[in-house]
Amino acid sequence: MLTQRRIKNHLKLAQNAQANQTPVEPNTMLAMTDTATTSEPGTVPPRKSKNVRKRNATSRADFTSTVNLASMANPSQVTMDSQLKEMLALMQKEIAEIRGKNERILGENESMRGEIKSIRSENKRILTKEESMCGEIERITNENKSLRKDNECIDDDLAIIRKDLDAARVQHTQDIEALREVTMSLVPLHLRDLLDRARRKGLEHLGYETWEGLRDSRSVYQLSNTIFDALKWQGQADAELDAIMNKQWWDLMRMAWHVAGCPYDQYRNRYASDVLDYGTDILEDLAKGTTMYMRVLPDVSRSELKFLRKGLSNTINRLELQQADENIQSAVRALKDMLLLRAT
After folding, report:
1. Which distant-in-sequence residues (6+ apart) come within 8 Å of 21 by Cβ?
2. In the prediction, which pLDDT does 166 show?
3. Which residues, 6 or more positions from 283, have their beta carbon under 8 angstroms from its beta carbon?
4. Which of 13, 163, 178 is nearest to 88 (CA)?
5. Tens digits of per-residue pLDDT, 116-143?
6. In whole angstroms, what is the distance from residue 118 CA to residue 89 CA?
7. Residue 66 and residue 31: Cα distance in Å, rounded?
8. Bias category Basic residues: which stretches (predicted)?
9. Which pLDDT band, with edges at 50, 70 and 90, does 32 fall under?
10. Distance, C-alpha 295 to centroid of its chain
């Protein structure tokens, strides 16, 4: 459409230019009209006979000669021809550019067609995948339905079991009550046995052989006070006796190791009236006894432990100077090591 519009514009320009020129003979105008009509683009000439074609050729030759003569006689005609040639060249150039643009557009259309095909194939793949996912979802839905049915069946079974348990509980209520009564009757027997054992233990502590001998001359309140007072006094006496004995043993052992570690002159002046040669054989037994006692020894002060540790150190030095038996030295060293562990 654009090309046709441009051609029409060029023809109008040519007609305007021709209208401004001097008139030409009628034969010349007729020939030019025939030529223009023949050369008009887009028209299809009808088929003619040989005589007609000969006449046309003759007329063209006459027209050409006439035009040449006219152009020689009229210079403005030459200018118009050159303008027409330039316009034709411009039209051909524009037609070539339009053809190139059309080819480029066709190529872009082909590439877009390929992209559309790829998009269509991708859409098909996505649709196929969605269909498979829909199938998977449907399968999972069916599995959930079957699981729901199984759960309903299990709930029904549990309800039946609960009903059976309730019926069994009602049926065996009497048996349970009888068992509870038997159990309650066993508890007093157990407590009675414990009470009898406590009575016998109390009689042993109080020095009586029978319970009747203890309560002959006492009322119930006097009897309880007598029993508690006697047990309390005996417990305190036993505790005090144990404390005295432990304290005595502890002091004796500490002083024994202190004496064993004293030098000979100091020992003679303090602990012996005559010159005595005290031996070391007893030290091994003393070390073993002290070790056994230290395992159950109650808490003592740091000063007392320090006093015993000093006596052991002096005893070891004395045994080394005298080159005493190795067993004796080992027993004393073991006692000192245990005392060091006890002090830490």
Report:
1. 74, 76, 77, 80
2. 85
3. 260, 315, 319, 324, 328, 331, 332
4. 13
5. 999 999 999 999 888 888 888 999 999 9
6. 44
7. 9
8. 47-57
9. very low
10. 54
Instruction: Give the model's confidence band at 246: pLDDT under 50 very low, under 70 low, under 90 confident, else very high.
Output: low
Structure token digits, residue 86: 């330039």
Dist CA 62 CA 25 (whole Å): 12
Residue 207 three-state SS: coil
Show the tokens assigned to 4: 């046709």
Cα–Cα dist 192/187, whole Å:
9
pLDDT on residue 154: 93
Sign of the dihedral defined by the CA atoms of residues 166, 168, 174, 175, in that order: negative
* 227 has a pLDDT exceeding 70: no
**pLDDT tens, residue by residue, 86-99:** 888 898 999 999 99
The CA-based angle 185-186-192, given to 5 degrees, is: 100
Question: 238, 261, 239, 250: which is closest to 313 by C-alpha?
Answer: 261
Q: Cβ distance 35 to 27 under 8 Å? A: no
Rg (the chain; Cα; Å): 71
pTM of the model: 0.30
Residue 101 structure tokens: 């643009």
Q: Is the pLDDT of residue 102 over 90?
A: yes
Report how far residue 228's alpha carbon sits from residue 24's, in angstroms, rounded to the nearest whole number: 169
Q: How far apart are CA 247 and CA 298, in angstroms?
A: 10
